[in-house]
Design goal:
Helix content is 37%, strand content 18%. The protein is of the alpha/beta class. The strands form three sheets. It has a six-stranded mixed beta sheet with strand order 3-4-5-6-9-10, with helices on both faces. Strands 2-1-11-12-13 form a five-stranded parallel beta sheet, sandwiched between helices.
């Protein structure tokens, strides 16, 4: 288990969970809309009685969510992007004495540059170093990795690990180096600072793997490198362990005191949301999802965990689906949800506008979805209340 401090306990009545719709509302937008609709439908409900939790996997929006949820602070620092240019990016700090740092690797992306086969993660190491200098002892690396083809070695280089070529010349990984793995002949990991070795680095596991796309010759170079890394003081791992991970995770696991976790569960633990939910005296869960498959087939681990929490606590769960489902899907969905679940599709909202055409703009779709959610919330809350009273 991660150790992310303690949460301030607040009694709440509603917990809003959201995933993005296939078109239209993001999970962050949907959470805000549902929160406003709940407060409008329940005049006795105060802001502190509603918790919004858009389910994120460590990608875009995670940094802002964690800092906002845990009343943290932002700090802007300089770091190198993935082509080696200096930029200014935000770091987040949360927890007791701001001892937990949150950084998003994607903030180092330069969309104008193509570094699919060559990039440096040096800036990630600079951000970790800045976080430790500010007194953090835990660092959460949010994913959204912009294809750092150096395998996370630049990250290690920024934190004191030295890499040498066949002529025993030290390599500077602050800039991209073509065919880096082929050029490394020796590694010295003895200069990593104590602050780093005594810290804990948590990585949100990336959904896609860069290593899976390696050619046979590239894979052999990675395996050769792993042996050299172990000789140079890096952690000793079976190389096959990293074929399911991204390149950043590969280097971080070798050289940092790191722990790789499924992204949505890492964010859930860092947010301290679960402790706030379980400390509440009564909860009605509201969940908006794109379709039934997001629950039945491809649910993030955090969503499955929170649905299980609702089931074990006997809480009500109101589900808003983007589209209608078949009877067969509805039956499966009901069996996967807590007994006290109420399911409705946005198309069932009592509004007078005609259904949108396939050519509707993204903004039009979002407005239509918002209107339908606002219409459905009071209806579904009354349905849940009536069922409880019966």
């Amino acid at each position: 288990m991660c150790s992310f401090g303690s949460a301030k306990v607040t009694n709440m009545d509603y917990c809003i969970l959201t995933l993005p719709f296939s078109q239209g509302l993001s999970q962050i937008d949907a959470a805000s809309i549902l929160a406003r609709a709940v407060r409008a439908a329940d005049p006795a409900c105060k802001t502190e009685n509603v918790i919004q939790y858009p389910i994120l996997d460590g990608g875009e929006g995670t940094l802002e969510l964690l800092v906002t949820t845990r009343l943290g602070a932002f700090l802007e620092v300089e770091a190198k992007n993935f082509v080696g240019s200096e930029i200014v990016v935000p770091l987040g700090f949360v927890g007791d004495d701001q001892s937990i740092a949150i950084l998003r690797m994607g903030s180092l992306r330069n969309e104008a540059e193509n570094f699919e086969r060559c990039g440096t993660s040096y800036g990630v190491g600079e951000l970790i170093r800045d976080a430790l200098d500010e007194g953090a002892f835990s660092v959460v690396l949010c994913q959204d990795e912009p294809l750092a083809a150096d395998g996370g070695l630049g990250l290690a280089n920024a934190l004191g690990v030295k890499f040498f070529d066949a002529n025993d010349a030290e390599l500077d990984l602050s800039k991209p180096i073509q065919n880096l793995f082929e050029k490394i002949a020796r590694i010295d990991a003895s200069n990593r600072p104590f602050e780093l070795l005594s810290a804990r680095i948590y990585l949100a596991q990336a959904a896609a793997s860069t290593l899976d796309s390696l050619s046979d010759s590239q894979r052999m170079n990675v395996e050769r490198f792993a042996r050299i890394a172990a000789e140079g003081g890096a952690a000793s791992h079976a190389i096959t362990e990293f074929y399911s991970h991204s390149m950043i995770e590969f280097g971080a696991s070798l050289f940092l005191p790191s722990e790789i976790k499924e992204g949505s569960m890492l964010v859930l633990e860092a947010s301290m949301i679960e402790s706030r939910i379980t400390s509440s005296k009564a909860i009605t869960f509201l969940l908006s999802v794109g379709d039934a498959r997001q629950i039945l087939e491809s649910a993030p681990a955090a969503l499955s965990h929170l649905i299980g929490l609702a089931r074990s606590s006997g809480s009500q769960l109101v589900v808003f689906l983007e589209n209608n489902v078949s009877e067969a899907e509805l039956t499966k969905l009901k069996s996967a949800l807590p007994a006290r679940s109420f399911i409705v599709a946005l198309q069932d909202a009592p509004i007078f506008s005609a259904p949108l055409t396939s050519s509707a703009s993204e903004e039009t779709v979002r407005r239509d979805q918002q209107m339908r959610l606002e219409k459905l919330v009071p209806i579904m809350l009354k349905k849940a209340t009536d069922a409880t009273a019966a």
